[in-house]
Structures are given as C-alpha cells and as structure tokens.
Amino acid sequence: MPFKLSPSSLSLMEDCPRCFWLHHNEDKKRPSGIFPSLPSGMDSILKTHFDKFRDKNKLPPELKNKECEDCKLFEDKELMKIWRSNLEGISFTDEQGNVLHGAVDNILVKKEKLIVLDYKTRGFPLKEDTHEHYQNQLDIYNFLLRKNGWETEDYGFLLFYIPKEVLETGEVIFNTHLVKMKIDVDSAEKLWKKALKLLEGACPKKHEEKECAWCELLSED
What we know:
The chain is of the alpha/beta class. The protein is built from seven helices and eight strands.
C-alpha cells in the first residue's frame, strides 16, 4: 500500500525504526502527549509578522544582514498559504503512489532561486550542534521544491528566536540568531527511500543498542 510520510515521521524512523513501522503499518502510534502551545503561537505571529513585510516588499530587521543581501520574501502570498499549511503543504508522489509531504515556514528568493527559511523558538542559547538537528528537515523541503519544478539554492536558513528579557511593561524581548545551512537533496531522497524500504519489509526487531519504552509498549497492544 502507498505511504504518506513527512519530516516528522522520518525523524521517528531515525529515533526508532520499530515504532515507525508500527505507526504506518499497524496504526499503533506513540501517545502524542500535551503539545506546548507557545511554539505554535509564536509560529502564528511570526507568519503574520513576515507577511506584513512581504506586503511592503521588504525584509524584516531579523534578516537585514550580509547573509541575506540581494534576497527578498517570496511574493506569492496565496501559494505561501498552501506551502505552509499542514493540511496541504508541498508534496511529491512517486510512481507507486507514496507521498512525501512537508510545510515550510517561509521562502526567500535570490534572483531566480528559492531559499527555505525555517524559524525555531528556543528557551536557551544555542549549542554548537543545535542547528544540526534540523538538517533533514531543510533537505526534505528543498527536495520537495525541486521535485515540483522550483530551483533552490544549495543552502537554507534557520532563524532562532531566544527570549532575552522582560521589560517593565511586560513585553518579552527576543534575541535572534540566523544560521546558514548547506543543503543536500540527495540525502533527503536516500532517507525517503530508506523509509519506504523499511516499511515494505518485516517489522524491525527491538533495539539491541538502546531500549525504547514506546516500541515495547506498542508491541504489547
């Protein structure tokens, strides 16, 4: 049967192949738990914030630096609404009907090429490897854009928002940190094919190197 995958589901595969297989083949899913509403709220107001600058054909102050010279925000607001919708997003379907799907935060344009911009809210200053946790996500977004006929640069951006202080008026001030990431679309395609091969095979064995409480629990259902 065809499978519909996303960056988050591929992240699950990297965490535990068995949980990933059970999720998609037997509909045995990890409990979702309580989703923090603050990141979702930040995501919403940031999209509004960027749209205001899009309407003015300007970049927000967070992007006014050397790395974003000669860039502008993607002008097609209606297409952006689709691309950043979790229900629609950007997708690619292979010959077997398998779908890879993702929703971007924003897109920059430099000349004729697109640049993926993804924003993250962090509670603490960045570590040296913080950005590395989002490599697959950026690779997949670029893979999807190229499969849909768009040219993309060989890099993307992560824009981190980190709380700095609370003013006497109650306003929260954030520091921002822009990280430029090299893109590898071949890695994204290999990851997707690896996921499909895993799903089409037998259920993976339980972890030998490390324990996974979730796949133990799901296997008992």
